[in-house]
Amino acid sequence: MKILVTGAAGFIGYFVSKSLLDKGHTVIGLDNINDYYDVDLKYDRLKQLGIAPKEAEIFEKEVHSKNHPGFSFVRMALEDREGLPQLFERHAFDKVCNLAAQAGVRYSLENPEAYIDSNLVGFLNILECCRNYKVKHLVYASSSSVYGLNEKIPFETTDSVDHPVSLYAATKKSNELMAHAYSHLYGFKSTGLRFFTVYGPWGRPDMAMFLFTDAIMNNKPLKVFNSGKLERDFTYIDDITEGVVRILETPTNENEPKKDLYKVYNIGNSKSVKLMDFITAIEESLQQTAQKQMLPMQPGDVEKTWANVDDLIQDFDYRPNTPIKLGVQRFIDWYKSYYKELAK
After folding, report:
1. Residue 204 φ then ψ, to 5°
2. Which of 79, 82, 114, 147 is most buried (most C-beta within 10 Å)?
């Protein structure tokens, strides 16, 4: 298939692109490479896919990979109402995997406009292009943050998600509603994936795994919010990637009833881990002790996440299952190797 992967220079987008290429698909990667976090990390991910940083810097120029014949990259924002339709017209995508978004719960308190531009305006442009250029299936990133103040554990996709506690969460819930409307009106399949705290090699520097490892290794205070009384369904990147790719590769049924065109799934490890246990796993792997700085609860945060993935198992015979200790060790191995190379 020919598949558009947006957010291809991002954490999940990089791994999904690589997996699809390894399976023989043609992938066009799109990313605006914004400076929400270190752009060098984004360029280095693209470098793994055969795209040189200097080539990736140029907006709207399609660059072909040097070591993956099936991959090309375009630097473009989802908000580009002229460039995006031209890209869809040029390539006639079979499927679209929309992983591009302005990420981060806490940053949405500081820069709300970025979330409206990318997550709402940009997502509308994706939906319009899918409608106008006959895309068979749109798979897009939602988030566990949509559950907000939901107190029922574990979280199920049938739960009410009407009480978001951050603008980021509100935009992700909006994406699900927008996709539902477009699937109903225009008859194309859409699948939303509520990711639960993804971690692993090449991860984002603003996420817990990266922040904790960096603090411990460099003998800096480690910020522990809500005095450590938090629990997260930490999900390893390989499990997330396998789930996304399995859904993308599932054949679409052109005669599928309208009510079945729209789906939402949780993708999580289906296990809630105490934050302090997660920190302990990092300490044990590094053989160092963290200098913990206990802080109050952050605005927009929630105390506990835990995914029920029964729907994922039933429909795709797939359950994420990487143990925390193994995932943590793999991240730390990558972290040491990556920053050792940068130090040369």
Report:
1. -75, 140
2. 147
